[in-house]
Design goal:
Blueprint (H helix, E strand, L loop, with lengths): L2 H5 L2 E4 L7 H14 L3 E5 L3 H7 L6 E6 L8 H13 L4 E5 L2 H5 L3 H17 L3 E5 L7 H14 L3 E3 L11 H11 L4 E5 L5 H10 L3 E4 L2 H11 L1
Parallel strand pairs: 1-2, 1-8, 2-3, 3-4, 4-5, 5-6, 6-7, 7-8
């Protein structure tokens, strides 16, 4: 893998509540300097980041119902549509975790079908955030089975705002269910090249991180 190929696996992230326009200007400049796949932001600054990244191949990714997932499907669809209208190229939405915990997988499938369908209609990449730190292995498996049917572009381990982040064992489990039909994104707590490499070897095809620059430095130091 080359440095350029590694950078293209990164969703370079700034999702803090206190983010200002200056933070987004810096984030987008870093993204351009590295040549990452995407900047991951909340939905409000999508229009600004789209303008900042004009003329590049770097995507703008909007986090929807982030980080709790506890908004209604109608609200998630509205936020998704608004983000796309503002220029989002990718959507990372959080499932309704409470519905998963109570075993309402019919709701989860309807939610996933609705959001993924809207993304496909608009030619936008869709990612489904499970937030695995709150789930049992069987619940992760059920979500992955639904995703195998619905076919979002990615399923994702974590928001990075829960009680835990990405785990190798969860990526392996998710990958074992969806195979090659859906990609897996690992996010949450990936801050150095050694850790990043393990997730890539486990099958993650995107890495969500606010430490993209540090990971690339570690990668270059090893070459």
């Amino acid at each position: 893998m080359t440095e350029k190929e590694l950078a293209k696996m990164f969703d370079h992230t700034f999702l803090k509540a206190y983010a200002t326009d200056n933070d987004f200007i810096r984030l987008c400049q870093e993204a351009k300097d590295m040549g990452v796949a995407m900047v991951a932001i909340n939905s409000e600054p999508v229009r600004l980041c789209k303008e900042l990244l004009k003329g590049t191949d770097i995507h703008v990714g909007a986090a929807i119902s982030f980080p709790l997932g506890q908004t209604s499907l109608d609200v998630k669809l509205y936020e998704t549509k608004k983000a796309i209208d503002d220029g989002a190229d990718e959507i990372d939405y959080v499932v309704n975790i409470g519905k998963v915990k109570q075993g309402d997988f019919a709701y989860i499938q309807k939610e996933m079908e609705s959001i993924v369908s809207l993304c496909k209609e608009k030619d936008v990449i869709s990612k489904v955030i499970f937030e695995n730190c709150y789930l049992e292995k069987e619940e992760i498996k059920r979500l992955a089975e639904i995703a195998k049917v619905v076919k979002p572009d990615f399923i994702k381990t974590s928001t990075g705002f829960g009680t835990g982040g990405a785990l190798i064992e969860d990526v392996l489990l998710m990958k074992s269910i969806v195979g090659g039909s859906v990609k897996v994104k690992a996010a949450g707590g990936i801050r150095d090249w050694e850790t990043c490499q393990k997730f890539i070897e486990a099958g993650a095809q995107r890495i969500g991180t606010s430490c993209s620059m540090d990971i690339l430095k570690g990668f270059k130091a090893e070459q």
